[in-house]
From TrEMBL, chains A, B, C, D:
GO MF annotations, alphabetized: DNA-binding transcription factor activity; transcription cis-regulatory region binding
Transmembrane annotation, as ranges: none
InterPro entries referenced in this protein's UniProt entry, alphabetically: Homeodomain-like_sf, HTH-type_TetR-like_transc_reg, HTH_TetR, Tet_transcr_reg_TetR-rel_C_sf
Domain HTH tetR-type residue range list: 17-62
Record keywords: DNA-binding, Transcription, Transcription regulation
Pfam families, alphabetized: TetR_N
Protein name: TetR family transcriptional regulator
Residues forming coiled coils: none
Amino acid sequence: MQAKAKTFTESARRAQIVAAAIETIAGLGYARASFAQIAKEAKLSSTGLISYHFANKEELVRTVLEDVFGEISAFMAERMSTPSSASAALRTYLEANLEFAAAQPTRMRALLNIFLGGALGYDPATEQAALEPVERILRWGQESGEFRDFDVRVMATTIRRSVEGPVFLLAGAPETDLTAYAEELVTLFDLATRRPT
Amino acid sequence: MQAKAKTFTESARRAQIVAAAIETIAGLGYARASFAQIAKEAKLSSTGLISYHFANKEELVRTVLEDVFGEISAFMAERMSTPSSASAALRTYLEANLEFAAAQPTRMRALLNIFLGGALGYDPATEQAALEPVERILRWGQESGEFRDFDVRVMATTIRRSVEGPVFLLAGAPETDLTAYAEELVTLFDLATRRPT
Amino acid sequence: MQAKAKTFTESARRAQIVAAAIETIAGLGYARASFAQIAKEAKLSSTGLISYHFANKEELVRTVLEDVFGEISAFMAERMSTPSSASAALRTYLEANLEFAAAQPTRMRALLNIFLGGALGYDPATEQAALEPVERILRWGQESGEFRDFDVRVMATTIRRSVEGPVFLLAGAPETDLTAYAEELVTLFDLATRRPT
Amino acid sequence: MQAKAKTFTESARRAQIVAAAIETIAGLGYARASFAQIAKEAKLSSTGLISYHFANKEELVRTVLEDVFGEISAFMAERMSTPSSASAALRTYLEANLEFAAAQPTRMRALLNIFLGGALGYDPATEQAALEPVERILRWGQESGEFRDFDVRVMATTIRRSVEGPVFLLAGAPETDLTAYAEELVTLFDLATRRPT
DNA sequence: GATGAATGAGTATTCATTCAT
DNA sequence: GATGAATGAATACTCATTCAT
């Protein structure tokens, strides 16, 4: 169905390498995540194998991002189905994000390490892609009259960054209760967005 | 009060190198900010000159951080003097931060790239230092009855990250109006923190 | 018995590099035996190839020592089998050492340059290992009554250094007759150790 | 009286630098005895000052050697005056050498570190200079009939190396009794050189 | 005479990538 | 498909030496 059909072996290897890359980037930070380290993590005999399956380090990193974003999307899609109102959607968005951070802390750390390690030159398009779903919810709420009249871009940016907060926090304090954290964020943004009565 | 007396030439060179380092880290990200790149930016004859003035890359980075933090502190100190209420303090905090981001976008980008680039192993203490002033304001507001009863840590983290948001945004959209952005954040967090009537 | 199985190509390369290192260390002294010099001697494309095969300079030097000690041990083992008396053993020890120095002058010079170059922090244990076989012979001779009552440590140190003497001498006067040199040393230490009648 | 008259200040500085060089070479080994380290030891403000007073590192090292050899010669000259016999002279030579090693361990260590560090390409002339006085004693003894008919070069080399032995030994075992060591050597070489009766 | 600054070649080591087998 | 070997540019950092002041 897809543009380039890959053999089973090939995609299995690619998946294995991507998994090792995630583990390594999350563990050592992007700067120290060399092909050598990734190959060791994947128990590969040669870094050449990575180059064989990925044109560049950049392609590998892009694939890692696609994998992580794919997981997030799937996770979110399952949870966000047909919300009854914008504020319910917002609540679900916040909760689902923190649930994902709790469920997949390694993937989340890898994601952030890539962005912050300066792996790719800052790409506004990627940022926009992450912001899009939030902005959709916010616009819906404003149109339906649930939400007050704020700047959608500012609110979306703030919300997006608020759910990334605990990812770092988890590194320093792994026992953090993300369910409680989510509840606080829900209240915070409910008050911040709700149309005053 | 002065730690070590340096000659004029030396501190001029150090300043020049620090400035070039800021420019380079802001522009290329921490990972790609090698001595070679910094030397090129500063038009130095060799990377050896950097090593001549800084014992380590770490010392250089530390000096960059001190420079940036120094600027921020001076800027904030001037603006935050004797606020009359916690909510006024919070407003000032948000405004001053965004003003600084508007005035010194390069310094700000460098700062964030350093932290996110994993230049220094993630250090909870540093994070706490950044959070401390915000938490103080929030506790004050809760004690005085201005603010409602939220989790201080969560709110502080969210506020801190909210003011970092526009730093990246500026790279993609330099025309962003940070005064308006600040006004939105002030309203957002006023609603989020204020004791309901 | 074998520690790590290496491929043929790898051990060939390692051997080639070790040989070049020996040549270089013997010729220029340890201090000037940089990876660059060794690579030039071995006609390698880059110093990176040395780092590819040896984790450290230390590992390379250790391998050089193992190579040289291995050769010496093999050489000595063949010659020292079941001596009939302590004085015969001492004679054989002296002769075998000088024969080796004549047969492998480069290896010997490399060995001494490494030790004297301070490549490894002065290690009493290594020195003791070199002294051990001599001390064993001397104690045997004292117990059997062949040798007089001298301080074993002093005599052993003197003997050990005496066989190192010609290694340097060879550099200045390559025509030196080491067989005659050995004969002189045999007589010297026979007189010095023998129980007076 | 001397070829190049130097000002007082100049020779004082040179002496100070030489002293610091000795201390540094003895302490850190030749390889790590950089101008920077020597300047620090001498509390000099700049390594440039060393270059100002010495054309090369080589000249500095040569001057160090001259200083050390000068001290040794003076020490020896005082002790060796008009010996009554070759065997007495040999005894005195051995004792004086070990006394010097005990009195000036730093100078001795520096001396050896220079030779062994490969500081200067192996120079047969220097070695010959060290051997000369010993050979003179040995020839005297053979001519007077006190000594047996051995190869002077071999015996001299062995004697020379025997007195260097304890210098290394002192590093590992500083409590070594060099007087006793000297007595052992005296006996050893008395037996080895004496004409059999 | 002395100082601090600068230079540029040198150090070992790491890296992504290529390629023959 | 996979492997081990090789490449050469890049990394931060050190060094002896030069030079203007």
